[in-house]
Amino acid sequence: MDKPRINLTKSDNIAFFILAMIDLIGFLFILMYATQSNNWAQFWSVVGVSLLMAGMFLLIGIFLGLLFGIPRALQEKNPEESSDTQSTQDKSAEKSGNKEVINYLPNTNLEQISDWLTKILVGVGLTQIGQISQALKDYASYTQAGLGNFSNSYQFSIGLLFYYSISGFLIGYLFTRLHLPRALRRADQLDFLQKEVEQAKLDDKVYNMVLTQLNDDVSKPDLDQNDLTKAIQDASPSMKAQIFYEAQKDRSNNWNNTPRMQRTIPVFRALIACDSKGVYHRNHGQLGFALKDLGFALKDQGKLEEAMKELDKAIQIRDLRKENGFEKYEFNRAACRIKLDGEFKKHKPEPSKPDAKQQILNDLKAACTGDQMKNLIIGDKDISDWMNLNQVNEKDICK
Fold it and tell me: Which of 43, 75, 80, 243 has the greatest number of CB atoms lying within 10 Å of its CB?
């Protein structure tokens, strides 16, 4: 059952109306006090000084009420956040379809200053409590002349101090407790909505830029890598996830169409450059796959070596984050190792040297985690030829 919403507007108005009436009654007291004057000049002088003092004490009270009533921002840690930051684009993509929460904390300098000043004032007040009586006497004696120097000026001065200071304190405190939080929330929401609109425009621009890179005519040159990286850097996390999946889809669908597949490489490079914390292993994995297919198609040893480095990095991040799956990293790394193996590349291939053989075996064993991967390994011609050449059978790899 939903909790009923409480409308504080009416009660707010009543509270402030009562305080306004109290201040108005105080003004009537000032007029009554000033009637002791001997002439109109003295009357207006006493009224003017009294009103000035009343206004000063009212403002001081309001200031103290603000200090004691300033709301404290709720700085809860997002339950989805932890010391182990979410690292895969899968988790980012899950959020992309939902409304994102405000994941920033408001500036709390005013709260801290309020807290410090409140503690200082309370501390000083407690340490000087024995001297308050003398301070009030000195204050009353000092202001008697301005208040007409009547027989009751001493008492009136002290009454004026407490009357308007307490009234001002209540006004300031109630305002900060009842109205300021709502005003701050509205300001935060408006600021957040404005940032969302600006971010949406930026994301749309970046997305179109990436689609141009992926879908443009293959005869046209790639977009400038620095421009692409800078654009993706400014994109939101959900847009980066969407860009990743667009590039992944294009690479997967066009792995045997080298010119088209090749256009995904700058996008993966840009995504990696934007991952300053190095937590997205799939960027490295997809770039490794693309470079491996490109190296196979062009028979380019440099591309294969670069693919190996990216796959090494993908495996390193995956293992560091203790994520399961993604066995194709090892499968593709094994394929690269075989292509780069000096013995296997000879005109008459020979068995691999022990170290190279063990590395390839380790990758194939790590990759063979089920029937699907087993069929993929056995069905790969280069891997099958290497296994026959090195007298490695299926049972040595898949157990």
Answer: 243
